[in-house]
Amino acid sequence: SVPPFRSAGDVLEDNPVGKLKVFIYDLPRKYNKKMVTKDPRCLNHMFAAEIFMHRFLLSSAVRTLKPKEADWFYIPVYTTCDLTPAGLPLPFKSPRVMRSSIQYISNKWPFWNRTDGADHFFVVPHDFGACFHYQEEKAIERGILPLLRRATLVQTFGQENHVCLKEGSIIIPPFAPPQKMQAHLIPRDTPRSIFVYFRGLFYDTGNDPEGGYYARGARASLWENFKNNPLFDISTDHPATYYEDMQRAVFCLCPLGWAPWSPRLVEAVVFGCIPVIIADDIVLPFADAIPWEEIGVFVEEKDVPKLDTILTSMPIEDILRKQRLLANPSMKQAMLFPQPAQPRDAFHQILNGLARKLPHPEGVYLPPSEKHLNWTAGPVGDLKPW
Ligand SMILES: *[C@@H]1O[C@H](CO)[C@@H](O)[C@H](O)[C@H]1NC(C)=O
Ligand SMILES: *[C@@H]1O[C@H](CO)[C@@H](O)[C@H](O)[C@H]1NC(C)=O
């Protein structure tokens, strides 16, 4: 349910403590900690929020050790920590890992079956959340894992009217390393001498040799239209001064890639560079608390060729207003998962989101005979034990 309108700043200041109690299942280490020991690279990639959220909750004031008094149940399973040798978090095993963890808790405790998971939440930060595939068509074909159909999903993926985003999900920012970003801060009064900045791929010839799928062609169009435009500092080279350059830029492009979002969104906000969001129908992180329309610029994918006109014709007062809003420390804090956690950071915004979903609607608690989940639905490969 949508809370009555308050200004965005107010919502960011909310303190979740006292508004909800979370019970954390104690799972065998193979579902979480052991994966990190085996491959610590998963502490640094853009999906690492699942690990830090677990650590945060373990010592959080909202934690309860008494499941009978819990408002929410959390299953700490890491679905993006099983990396390929090259370090890519491809979620092929995730459906089996997830299913296995749900089987484990539903056999050992009575709480899952009581609601078929409707008062449980999961952090599923991969590209297409609980659809568990990195390619959009495949993700859509799979759909959300059937066992998660009643649970609340905390995920980075957000796009309107998409099978991989179910109603009631909480959209979070991708993980960007807070200490590393902090270490690259330059004086705040440094002039912003770069007009438009972007570093990243324009084509993904490895995975999309014919072109057109990757970024639905928007990044290719960016390159073809503006590679020689002096106002556009765009390139595939990733310089050592990447973070400093963003602090010297007025506009930072945040086009879709394979997914609608990328860590650039977080970086732009943290570095006070106006995010230019090119991803039709994107649902942005904590959109009920962060005034994205006011701090960013939204450009439709088909309008990429007009980007120079759109940005150069923006009134200077609008630019200054957006920069002032971006300078608000609460805005930056909400984008980050710092260690240790701090008030108003992304951890607290997730808890605020869960608290605002309380009380649970009627119909959450099922009569003993009523079942909503089909334990044998989904691709047969997913049903193999893990
Ligand atoms: C919960 O339901 C599952 C699937 O129907 C069943 O296997 C399990 O034993 C049940 N758990 C409890 C604690 O009754
Ligand atoms: C559960 O899913 C399987 C596989 O799709 C299907 O064959 C079966 O009929 C479903 N069961 C129910 C009760 O809907």
TrEMBL record:
It comes from the Eukaryota. This is Exostosin GT47 domain-containing protein. The keyword Transferase applies. Belongs to the glycosyltransferase 47 family. GO terms for molecular function: glycosyltransferase activity. PANTHER family: EXOSTOSIN HEPARAN SULFATE GLYCOSYLTRANSFERASE -RELATED, GLUCURONOSYLTRANSFERASE OS04G0398600-RELATED. GO terms for cellular component: Golgi membrane. Keywords: Glycosyltransferase, Golgi apparatus, Signal-anchor, Transferase, Transmembrane. It is a single-pass type II membrane protein. One of its GO terms (biological process) is glucuronoxylan biosynthetic process. Residues 19-314 form the Exostosin GT47 domain. It comes from Aegilops tauschii subsp. strangulata (Goatgrass). It is found in: Golgi apparatus membrane.
